[in-house]
Every structure is written in C-alpha cells, then in structure tokens.
Amino acid sequence: MIDFKILVVDDETEFTDVYKIIFADKGFDTYSVSSGEECLELLKDQSFDLVITDLKMGGMNGMELLKAIHEHKYNCEVMLVTGYGTIESAVNAMKLGAFGYFIKGNDPEVLLKEIDKLVKIKTLEQDNMKIRSRLNDFNYLLDSNSTKFKNILKVSEKAALSNSNILILGESGTGKEVIAKYIHHVSQRKDENFVAVNCQIFSDGVLESELFGHEKGAFTGAIERRIGRFEEANNGTLFLDEIGELSLNTQVKLLRAIENKSFERIGSNKNISTNIRLISATNRKLSEEVKIGRFREDLFYRINTITIEVPSLRERKEDIPILLNFFLNQLQQEMKKKITKVEDGLLDLLTVYDYPGNIRELKNIIERLVVLADDGTIRKRDLPDLKMYDNSLQSPEEIKSLKDIRQNAEEKYIRNILAMCSGNVSEAARLMDISRRQLFNKLVEYDIKH
C-alpha cells in the first residue's frame, strides 16, 4: 500500500467504482463520496492527499467544491474530472488552484501519471520534513516554563563551548538524547556528524564492532570492512546512550580509546586517531555501580567531566501543555488526522499523573488519544486507565509498603504498554527503553501473559 490517500467525489457510482478499482490496483488508499457536501464533511475529520472530483454534479459542483476546500485551507490537492464540452471550465479551475484535470473517456494511464507526480512531490516534501524534524527535534524542549529545566539548558550551552566529555543522567524517557543533540547543535562541531549508539541493544562482540569497526575476515560473517561509530563521528559528537549497560570488558576498550584518542578496528593492528566530543547517558546511578564493581571507576571519571541531570516530567509538569501541543502537531502530520479540540478537563487529568515513563509515556498516551479521537476531539474517556489519574481512589485502607506500591505501579504500566502495542514485546521494550531480556524477566516476575 502506497502512503497516499485519494478521495473520489462523483454522483455517478459507476465512475467512483471504476476509479477505486484502478487506484486500488496501484496500491492507493482510496475512498469515495457522492457529493461535494459529503466531501467537506469527511475532510473535517480525515486528511487526504488528493481529491478527485467531477466538475458537474447535483448540488455543489466541482468548481464550488474546489473553492470551499481552499477557503477551509484543507491540506490536499484537487483534480477535476470533466467531459469534452467543459474543458474550458477545468482550465479555469486550474487557475484557481486545481492541480490538474482529467477528461472522461481518456486513457486512465494519463490520470495515473498525474497522480504519480503528486506522489513524488509528497515524497520530496516528507524527506525535507524529516530533515527539518531532525534539526528541530529539541525545539519542544527549548520552549519550557520550568525553571529547573531552563537551568539545565543554560548548563548545556556552557558545556557545549568546551570539548569536555559530558555525562547526562536521568530516568528513562526524559529526553537525554535530545539534550545531547542540543549540545551538539550549539557547539563548534554542529556541522559535523552526531552519531548515536544505544549500548544496551548490542551484545559484547557486536558492540565492539559497532564502536570500532572491523576488517574483512576479522571473524565469521565479516565479509567486508566496516567503519565503526568512532570513525564515523570523527570531528563530531559520539553519543553513547545507556552506557551503564556496558560489560567490564567493553569498558576497558572504551577507556583506552578515550585516553589515547585512537583505536584499532577488529582484525587490524593499524592505529586510527579520532577527534570526537563524547557525550554519554544512563538512567543508572553510576556512582553506585562503581561501588559494587559493575562500572570501572577510571572510566566513570573520564566520561563525567561535566554532569547534567535531566529532570523527570513530574518535576516539570508546567511543561505538559507545551508538550501536548507539540505532540498533537507532530501526530496530526504523521497520521493525517485533524485534531481541533481538547476536551475540557483532559489537560487537568494529564497534569495530575506522575508519568513513570516520563515524556515517552506522555507521547504514547497522546498518540492513543489521537488514534481514538472522533470529530477532531481528544477525550478523557480514551485515556488508557482512568484510575491512574484519580487521586481520590487512594484511601487509608489501601496503604501498602513503598516496595509494593512500586511493584504495583510497574506491573500496571507494563500491562498498559503491552496493550497499546497489541502484545508486541519488542515494540513494548523499545517504548519503555529497556531490552527484550529485561522485559521478559518482568513478564515472568508479574506473571503477565502476552
């Protein structure tokens, strides 16, 4: 299926049926209505890439529909379908902003070629949007009402002026990678590569190859030379996410590369110099990991010349309205769905909740609300679990140990995320920013079937 939605408007069902068959055969997602009025009603709730409308219809004609679509500023192109005797009107419609016209009885390939032009234009626009999005990923964090978070940004800006190694601490889902990207963006290395590696998703041997690269024939399956992330990030920024998950063996090799500012590809004796700014992040308390021997003390002091601790979302709830607007705009574009209203009281409920999954969890909740929205309105009834937003449900009779409360909250959260992912363990683990193995352990611990 091609990511391109077409709405056909024609009061003659035999024509709409033919169009739907032709477009479906080419992989287009196609809908049809029998009048201009129905089209406008549908456009209130759904987004389409292209509206193909007959010029002459009972009630609202194609020209009037074109004008109405432009007046309402619906983000879609319009093509007119006309008979031989009304070509002049179709040309006039193009002057008013129609993308093109198609003459009934002509070869459908002519129409498909015009649609193909639109598909290519859309692809280019999406590529440009992705580039702009990557550049602006951190914008929603920069716009903050939180004094604590504004101070974090000031520290980040000062840290960016140096080449010192930076350690970013914070709970899962707080936006540590976004802060890392921001530091890179305001540093003198901003025109060079920002290379991110999630340390917890690779096994030891694979991670070493990922970081330092390998030569052809270095091990079974090494069919060609591979450039590692250190090499790729040269003169730029290397971001090691979840550095607390590194094995002691990999920690030794990483320490050597940091101290010597050089490394060797696996299977090679050639020393390769590297000039990188290293930014690391973890949700673990590394100082405690050092005490129990799970993290090397010398590496710890190497990576945390400057430490930045990102506050949890429950510590910056004044930013929830900003984040809500940001994610709504983002998800509307991704889903091609218009949201025009937030139900009264919904924002209050979102603000009461403490978000153990932080910003990532808030985004998941908003995505759910957008998916389930009717008539362009996100509603309280579509929240994943209303009980978790209602503090009045807590009573003295329900007092438990802090350990039990944490376990209950964790189990409920895991069940909610699994439900949102339709039981997909890999997707749920990714959203919760843990490994599949860690999630499987939790499923066993809480006897959660999936």
Automatic annotation (TrEMBL):
<dbReference type="InterPro" id="IPR025943">
    <property type="entry name" value="Sigma_54_int_dom_ATP-bd_2"/>
</dbReference>
<dbReference type="InterPro" id="IPR025662">
    <property type="entry name" value="Sigma_54_int_dom_ATP-bd_1"/>
</dbReference>
<keyword id="KW-0547">Nucleotide-binding</keyword>
<dbReference type="InterPro" id="IPR027417">
    <property type="entry name" value="P-loop_NTPase"/>
</dbReference>
<keyword id="KW-0067">ATP-binding</keyword>
<dbReference type="Pfam" id="PF25601">
    <property type="entry name" value="AAA_lid_14"/>
</dbReference>
<keyword id="KW-0804">Transcription</keyword>
<protein>
    <submittedName>
        <fullName>Regulatory protein AtoC</fullName>
    </submittedName>
</protein>
<dbReference type="InterPro" id="IPR058031">
    <property type="entry name" value="AAA_lid_NorR"/>
</dbReference>
<dbReference type="GO" id="GO:0006355">
    <property type="term" value="P:regulation of DNA-templated transcription"/>
</dbReference>
<dbReference type="InterPro" id="IPR001789">
    <property type="entry name" value="Sig_transdc_resp-reg_receiver"/>
</dbReference>
<dbReference type="GO" id="GO:0005524">
    <property type="term" value="F:ATP binding"/>
</dbReference>
<dbReference type="Pfam" id="PF00072">
    <property type="entry name" value="Response_reg"/>
</dbReference>
<dbReference type="InterPro" id="IPR002078">
    <property type="entry name" value="Sigma_54_int"/>
</dbReference>
<dbReference type="Pfam" id="PF02954">
    <property type="entry name" value="HTH_8"/>
</dbReference>
<dbReference type="InterPro" id="IPR003593">
    <property type="entry name" value="AAA+_ATPase"/>
</dbReference>
<feature type="domain" description="Response regulatory">
    <location>
        <begin position="5"/>
        <end position="119"/>
    </location>
</feature>
<dbReference type="InterPro" id="IPR011006">
    <property type="entry name" value="CheY-like_superfamily"/>
</dbReference>
<keyword id="KW-0238">DNA-binding</keyword>
<dbReference type="Pfam" id="PF00158">
    <property type="entry name" value="Sigma54_activat"/>
</dbReference>
<feature type="domain" description="Sigma-54 factor interaction">
    <location>
        <begin position="142"/>
        <end position="371"/>
    </location>
</feature>
<dbReference type="GO" id="GO:0043565">
    <property type="term" value="F:sequence-specific DNA binding"/>
</dbReference>
<dbReference type="InterPro" id="IPR002197">
    <property type="entry name" value="HTH_Fis"/>
</dbReference>
<dbReference type="InterPro" id="IPR025944">
    <property type="entry name" value="Sigma_54_int_dom_CS"/>
</dbReference>
<keyword id="KW-0805">Transcription regulation</keyword>
<dbReference type="InterPro" id="IPR009057">
    <property type="entry name" value="Homeodomain-like_sf"/>
</dbReference>
<dbReference type="GO" id="GO:0000160">
    <property type="term" value="P:phosphorelay signal transduction system"/>
</dbReference>
